[in-house]
User: Fold this.
Amino acid sequence: MSHPFRSLRRALPALLTLAALGTALPARGQATPSDGVLRAFQPTGEFSLQVNGQPDPKAQIFVNRNIPAYLILPGTGSPVLISPGATKVETIPPAKVVRQKDGSLDVLADAVLKPQGAFQLVGERVEMNAEGRKLSMGPKPPLLGLKKAADLKQHSPEYVVGAKAFVPNATSVAKLKKQAAPIRVVVYFGSWCPHCKEVLPHLLRVEDEIKGSKLQIDYYGLPRDFKDPEVQRLGIKEVPTAIVYRNGKEIGRITRNDWTAPEVALSILLGV
Assistant:
C-alpha cells in the first residue's frame, strides 16, 4: 500500500488550478463565506505531528482529498496548510479557520495565506518549517492487540464521524438489546485499513445503541503484514472479521458484505 501523502501528492488537479471555482455561501451564523476550494477538510487519523522534535498530542490533522491538501491545527501556533501538488506550506490566521457543525473545517474566503516555503519528504515523514518551528508529520503507529471502542475513536476521528452518520436497523438493535445469554464479539481489524475505517463505524454505532445489554464487543488490531499469532490460530484471512462467541464457543463470523449492516448479521447469527 502506497504512503497516503505520496498518493495525494500525485493526485490532480493541484490547488492553484482549482482557485477559479469561487466561494461558497456562508454557513448559518458565519458572516464571511467559506473559500470555494479550501473547505470541507475532514479529520484524519492517518498522521501524528511532531514540533521541534517533540510529539504534539493536541495537534489535529484534516484532509481534503479533492484539492488535495492537508490542514494542520498544531497545539499552539497558526493553522498550517500543506498542498502536495505544489509542495508548498502556508500558514493561515487562526480566526480564518472555522469548524462546521459536521466537524469539518473551512477556510474563510478573505483569509490571507502566508508562505512558509516548501516541504520535504524524508522517508515516511513530511518535514516543513512554519513560523520558525520545525514540523514533522508522519504515519500514526497502528493500534495493535486487544482494544475497546474508545481506543479506536481516540486513534482515528474517522471512526467517530462514520459512527454518527450510520443509522442502524432499529428492529435488529431492539432484538440485540433483549439478548438473554452473554455474547462476546471480537473484531479483528487494521487501523491502517481504509475499508475498516469505512465499515467499523457501523458496529461502533451499534455498540453505542446497545449499551447495557449482554453483548460484549472487543477489537483486536493487527499489523499490516498480518504477522500475529491470532491470525494463524483463528485463520483470519481478511479485515475486518468479527468472531461471535456464545459460552466461549464460536457460533459464526461477520465478514465482507455483512459489514453493511452488522447489527442485522449479528441478530441472524444469534437467532433473535
Summary: Residues 194-209 form the longest helix (16 residues).
